[in-house]
Design goal:
about 60% helix, mainly alpha, elongated
Length: about 190
């Protein structure tokens, strides 16, 4: 009778495991929770709070934690106005440098290259480097296409632009020079300009 009950329980457990796609994740979460409770109990037995657990870390463990956090922070995307600050722009520059091949042989200047002060006369461009640059520019354009969003256009607004980039430029120009050019523009639109 006991064997039959144990067999029945084992088969129902196996069926649950096979039917639930998140079974492994649930098991791992339960194991993590048990480890966390055991660790908290151990800290309490030693007379410490959970915040003071770093006192029992080895230097190696602390270094691994720090490296994981640094790696996570390195990959973190900028948010909000941080997209435009100098640190983020430098981080993007470093990221682009990482994409370049690590070969310094092209940077070595030799006597056969001619006079380096004769600007525009010596042509020794590496075709591979030009292709890499073109590929990087194409990749950048593709990435920018992914992140564009359609702005709503106001129906009553004057259309004084030919595309979105020109509209943005015109907006900047108006902000700076509108106080001087409003009357001239109105005269041109009416046809009464001198």
């Amino acid at each position: 009778n006991k064997g039959r009950k144990a067999n029945k329980k084992a088969t129902t457990d196996e069926q649950k495991r096979l039917d639930d796609p998140h079974w492994e994740a649930k098991e791992k979460a339960a194991e993590r929770q048990a480890n966390k409770q055991r660790w908290a109990k151990e800290m309490k037995d030693r007379g410490l709070t959970t915040d003071q657990s770093y006192l029992f870390e080895t230097a190696e463990t602390a270094e691994q934690k720090y490296e994981r956090k640094a790696k996570k922070d390195k990959g973190k995307a900028a948010f909000g106005w941080d997209v435009f600050n100098q640190d983020t722009l430098y981080k993007a520059y470093e990221k682009r440098l990482d994409q370049l091949p690590k070969n310094n042989s092209t940077a070595i200047v030799t006597k056969e290259d001619g006079d380096q002060l004769a600007y525009g006369q010596v042509v020794n461009d590496d075709k591979g480097a030009i292709d890499r640059m073109a590929q990087e520019l194409n990749d950048k354009i593709e990435r920018n296409k992914k992140f564009s969003r359609r702005r709503t256009e106001l129906d009553g607004a004057d259309v004084d632009y030919i595309n979105d980039r020109n509209a943005h430029f015109n907006k900047k120009i108006k902000r700076a020079f509108d106080k001087y050019t409003v009357e001239i523009r109105q005269n041109l639109e009416r046809g009464t300009a001198l």
